[in-house]
Sequence to fold (485 residues):
Amino acid sequence: MTTAQPGATAVKQAIQWMLRLRENGHDPALQHQCRQWRSARQEHEQAWQRVMHLHQDLDLRAIPGAGLALQTLETSQRRLQRRQALKLLGGVAMVGTATWLGKDLDAVNAWASDYATGTGERRSVALPDGSLMQLNTRSAVDLAFNDQQRLVRLKQGELMITCSPQHPLLVQTRDALLEGFEGRFVARQDSDCTQVSVSHGRVAIHRPGNGQLQWIESGQNWRLDAQGPHRLEQVDMDAMAWTDGLIVTRNMRLFDFLAQVSRYRHGYLGCSEDIADVRLSGVFRLEDPEKLLQLLPRTLPVRLRQRTRWWVRVEGLV
Amino acid sequence: MPSNDSVQTLYSDHHGWLHAWLRSKLGNAADAADLAQDTFVRLLQRREHLQLNTPRAFLRTVARGLVIDHWRREELHRAYLEALAQVPEAQAPSAETRELLLELLERIARMLDGLKPKVRRAFLLAQCEGLKHQAIADQMGISVRTVERYIADALYHCYLLRYADEC
Fold:
């Protein structure tokens, strides 16, 4: 560059002018004053041009579909910081991170885990063998990968595995040991059972003390509990939808629906007995569970009773 | 410009180690290989002399920046696809627009690195949503003067980055 750079003062003034004009663009007096400032010194004009260029570069409003920009930038930044904190910093910094994350982590057990998510959080992890693991809200897993085995221990919550084509992958839940072959499946550990859904490929169930394999084929949903594995002919909820940030229900009981929603938010969420069996079909976004709840009275004969932010009960209208 | 020789030595001495380090961070051998390669390419492009007293610490610093870039790109893509899933298909932007937008978002995200969260948020509300300062103040529960200062600070920060090479 042959010309001198505009100094910091000129640049800051140019920014002030640009912001003032952006706020009150049609004020002729302001426009006039700005022109005067620009022509007062060459440095001013130069700073002005640069600031305008910069502003154009950063202007997202001009692009179609930019409405998603804010959300995208904010979400990705939060995750990036978390990832950086977890993976790149040393032990001392980890303590700070742990306290920071701790406020939205559900169980102490999550701390001792290799990967964990807090309430309402979702997370993708590329596993060392090239398969992909997605964790849903309030989930915790440990990894045991070595030469002999690739094992994911689901200690709590729900995960989706997309297997790498080369290697089968083992997932241990409280109720069974699963082996996923090329394909994709979801396992969710509830209080009394594990539910497994396979979207493609297939999964084998190894049961303790029983040498025989039970196969789960693509498109199937199974429930594994103390009675053993059995296939669910009909499900009232799309098992994979959470990976897209959605709950998709088909004729689901309101009681069950609220139980699902409460996994994604803090506090008590329930309903009165008289409406527990009301049926619900639809697509609901998980990003803002409060907003989701506000939608219910619009489509169902119910109202929300809210004592505090953390206590919400859905009741019948009469 | 570092001599190609020194980068060559660095490469042969430490490439395996760097690849393993990256792999432990990324959990993926293919990405690790790419970024290890990028790290050395980055070194070849540097203008100043290489500081070779502690080669591994040095490599790690360069590689760390690349890892963060890589993650940023990944997280942006993921967050964007998630945001997109909430938009009716008919309103979703075309594939070209998406690419363009993601590229722009990446550039902006890199520029905004290091800004305080509130400064960043105020700035983004203005740039992405086109909100007036008063509306941003209301939404964030801060004064209009503070909003103005935040946005001006953010712009100045970006200015310095954008024109740093020419200073």
Q: What stands out?
A: Chain B touches chain A through 58 residues (CB under 8 Å). Chain B has seven helices and no strands. The mean pLDDT of chain B is 82.
